Each structure stands twice: as structure tokens, then as C-alpha cells.
Amino acid sequence: MTETDSQTQYCYVHPNRATVLRCNRCERPICTSCAVLTPTGYRCKECVRGQQKIFDTARWWDYPAAILVAFGLSMVGSLLVSRFSGIFGFFTIFIAPIAGMIITEAVRFVVHKRRSKNLTWAASGAAFVGGIINSVVVLISIFSITGLMMLFSFIWPIVFAVLVTSTVYYRLAGIRL
Predict the structure, then answer these.
(1) Which of 18, 44, 46, 66 has the smallest number of CB atoms closer than 10 Å to its CB?
(2) How confident is the model over 35-85, as pLDDT tens digits?
(3) Under 8 Å between Cβ of 15 and 29
């Protein structure tokens, strides 16, 4: 009993919590609320943050390149969807994720597979703006030209923009469903 009492460890963040866990990188004692389960074992939050920073490999010129590619391809896709809304219509919900995958792979190609959380947000935002810009033009034309078909030309590009944006974000973020 005296042997275990003398070896009681306390979390380095919460000094009042006894623990038996240690970070497998820095060997500091951590409690269960401070531990992060990784594929190689438990690590403290500081070591996990330090490891994640290593993987931000994007350079400054990757951001404008990703924005231009995502914006341009999304705008072209949105124009096609609005132009052929009578043909595509409902099938936009199937076409948009495919367009999002194409946009994602084009962005990855342009930035040479470098990654960053901010790069993911920039490309996703550009894809949304590129997809929605056509809807703004159609919305302005609805007020000048009345017609129900123009309303459908407005709705499907918005659906396209939302679906493309979510696909680009989740594929660039590395989230697998």
C-alpha cells in the first residue's frame, strides 16, 4: 500500500486529479479530460496541437490559386445548372456533389496537395460565392422580367451552391463519410 501511495501522479493541468495516464509523446501525467485518444495512444492536448501545426503545409500563393479555381469551376457549374434547369432540375442534387468532387480535385491539383484549415475555408467560400453569383443575377432579372420559370432558374443554382460547398469543404477537410 505504501508503494502505490508514494507513486501517485497528478495531472499537470489539473493538479488535484490523480491519474495513471501519461502522454505517449512528452510523458507528462494527464487526466482523462485532458487526454486525446490518437491511433498511437493517449496524448495531451498540447502535443496534439503541436502535431497538427506540422501538417499545415500551404504556401501563400495556394490561397489565391485555390480561390480562383473553386470560384471559376463553381460559377461554370452554376451557369450550366441554371441554363438547363428545365432539363436538370431535380437532378441537381445528384450533379452538384459530383461537381464538388471535380472542384476539390482541381484545387488539390493546383495547390499540389498542400493543405491548411484556412485553405479549406477559402476554397469552400469561393465555391459558394461562385455558385451563388449566378442566382443573384437571376434574382435581379426576376424583378425586371416576371415569370415562374425564372424562379426555378433561381432555386436550382442555390441548391447547387450549397451542395457543392459542403462537398468541397468535407473533401478538402479530409472528413470521410
Answers:
(1) 18
(2) 988 888 899 888 887 776 667 778 899 999 999 999 999 999 888 887 776
(3) no
Using a pLDDT cut of 90, give the percent of the chain over it.
31
Strand segments (E) across the chain = 9-10, 18-19, 21-22, 29-30, 35-38, 41-44
For residue 18, report the phi and psi dihedrals to the nearest 5 degrees: -75, 145
What is the pTM for the complete model shown? 0.63
Torsion of CA 65, 49, 164, 127, to 10 degrees: -30
Query: Residues 131-146: what's their mean pLDDT?
Result: 71
Boundaries of every domain in the chain: 6-54, 62-172
Contacts for 127 with CB less than 8 Å, ≥ 6 apart? 70, 71, 73, 74, 100, 103, 161, 164, 165, 168
Q: How far is CA 138 from CA 36, 93, 160, in A?
A: 49, 19, 14
Could you report the per-residue pLDDT of 92-119, keeping only the tens digit for each? 788 889 999 999 999 999 998 888 888 9
Neighbours of 32 (CB within 10 A): 11
Nearest to residue 34, comparing CAs of 25, 22, 26? 22
Q: What is the DSSP letter of 32?
A: T
Tens of pLDDT, residues 13-40: 889 999 999 999 899 999 988 898 888 8
